[in-house]
Specification:
This protein is mostly beta strands. It is about 10% helix and about 40% strand. Strands 3, 4, 38, 39, 49, 50, 51 and 52 form an eight-stranded mixed β-sheet that branches.
Amino acid sequence: MKGRLTINNVLIDISEDMPVPLSYSIADVKEPQNRKRNYSKNIKLPGTRRNKAFFSSTYSLSLSAIENATVGFDFDPTQQVPATYSEDGDNIFIGMCRLQSVTIENKNYFFNIVLMTNMVELFSLLKDIKVSELGWSEYDHTLSITNIENSWATSVVQNGSPVANFTGGVPDGFGYLYPLADYGYSGNLRDYKTNNIFPHIYFREIMTKCFALVGQTIIGNFIDSERFKRFVLGFGGGEKQNVSASDVLQRKAEYTATGSFSEDITYSSFDTPFFPLPPTGNLLYRYNYNYSKILKIADNFWSATTLVVDALGQFDETTGDFTIAKQGTYQLLFNGDVDFTSSGGLLSTAALRVVRNGADLGNIFVTNNTGITTFNGSINLSLNVGDVISLVFKIGFQKIDTSQTLPEDMPTYTIGIANSGTWNFELRSLGGVPIDGDTIYLSNYIPEMKCSDFLNGVILAFNLYVDDADSEGGVKIEPLDDFYLGSNVFDDMTQLLDHSREQKILSSSQIKGKNYLYKFLEDNDYYNQNYRSKFGQGYGDKNYQVQSTFEKGERVFQLPFAQTVPVGVPGTNIVIPTIIAFDENTGVVTPFKGKPRAFIYSGLRASDSWVLRNSAVTTTFNTYTSYPCINHLDDLDNPTFDFNFELPIFLQWSNANYVNENMFSVYHEKFLKEITGKDSKIFQAYYKLNKSHIRPQSFRRFAMINGVLFRKNEIVDYNGNGEETTYMELVRIVEGSRRRLIPILVPQDLTNDLVSEGGNNSNGADTGVSVVRGEINKAETTAKLSYGG
């Protein structure tokens, strides 16, 4: 049999004539805001002895689940598990398996499954995890002028020690950055306290942490490009976190625990025959042992817990659940020696994991070794009142035993946890406004955002194409121009075209939507609202109108980040992002609680002097003549790229030169011309395909039809039996010239002032001096807004 299916590393029986209809897609030209992924239609597996043993949990009434754990069987029907389908030894599908149903026909069992790409599993997992919960405790550090200053160009604190995170003046894309921004905390924008500026985190590290959750790494030039390594995600503004020291103490819940557990494991399935054993010719059997167990830390059949402190009674020792009493940011810690035991087999995984409201948030600590291991780890969590948190051990066991012994004589293995002493686990509040010398818990300063939203936003912003993981778990992610291998690397499909079946050539008139709206997440801080009220669109947004006269309606492409308007500090050449609110009744500027913000870090920019002051001892400060600049431009003075979709109609700082290389022109314009322009063509037809056309990474090769190059967009229901042709959708390549850099003069009458700031003294001495800043109606001569001083 040339087809081979494995699920959870176990070989599964498939029928010789059973179709495995696989579909592959890289994008959807008809819905370009979507990114479809590889999948299969229903695959009907026969109820052989091997398959019934593997799927026994799905139909046997004598088996059950306790604490969401698999007990007595190997396949958990509530979870997606790894699956691979190969033909003649070549993998043509690597992804996940989901069981749809079990059917019984004439007393014969059938197991109906669906295969899908790892990206489905990744997004399913990420929808329950926030960016702040990806594991940032390694970067917790002491608040100090030195640590802030080092983040600008040299190093960050990682696991308690300084680690360089810049190479040749370019950030390496990990750790944190303290840039300058105006959040409405002070009237003097040349004088900052250390606890009035906040750490941002790098896009690159967020992406790598997301893919690491499913054991994958990102490969390609984009993830390591200077441009992408400069992108940071940061605080959207608002009141600084303020939880009193007494409240922090009250929220603490600390316990100790101890326990032991063991269980016998028999084989889960066997292959017969494996191969004849010479010289007698006896059959050799291969027996598969696959085991998974989840053990919650609680006063149940295997462990016991003891109270240390828990003023709010948040932990239930019987159930092992923390029920959160007060909203906030917390750290869940575990420390202790755990002794994993295994007789004659391999401990494939032993992990301490966190579950929130029934969703698995991932590992605090993991090992693959038996014996005593010191578990010492933590996870930071953003929690609401009523959230339920629990700690569990997950143990996995795998072994393949090759023997002539009959099934009833096969050995039984034992796996478990031996009593190795006392463990300590603690739920700790991370609240409070820090001063110099206090610990900065990095997760406190990460915006509220789901990982799935962040990942979708990055893919949308840069029009990224994501390939399936290779055999080593590497995932190729690149923008359109870089994803494909080159115009000289193609599959000539001309002779494979099935002329007996319908062929369609679609023009741009078939693409739905007249207006393509590229937008940032709408926010109502003063400068964003002011821009929107004057021009009827958001700062940096773009409306692209399709040439076709047939289409109607809109297609909206919205990022999960709000854009931030940079504003010049009066009397200086300092330009900083500004997120403030303004009360028209009082004329006072106050902090504005905004949505997540994304920026390009352009490095240290030469400037007039400014001060960074110790928040505990304000007479201790450093004075600088350059500042850490974040913006939507990669360089304020000589820009080459703009993190906007469109040129701003006006700027809040003086700049005679701008650039029209932006998110739309660089990453989206070419693709839209291919699917909506007058020369666009979408070719739908059937082809005689083989495994070389659909194996992983094949989408990166172009297709050629009669000398014309196309992008492969979608393959539907390939089954590899060689008898039927397969539907494939191709998109004709439309080459467009690169847009050139041009200077753009900003009208000077739109760079006058509206917002009045107090103070421009670099020593912080006169915080009440009124200096106008921003845009104003020309007829007015007095400032409308002012900071108190």
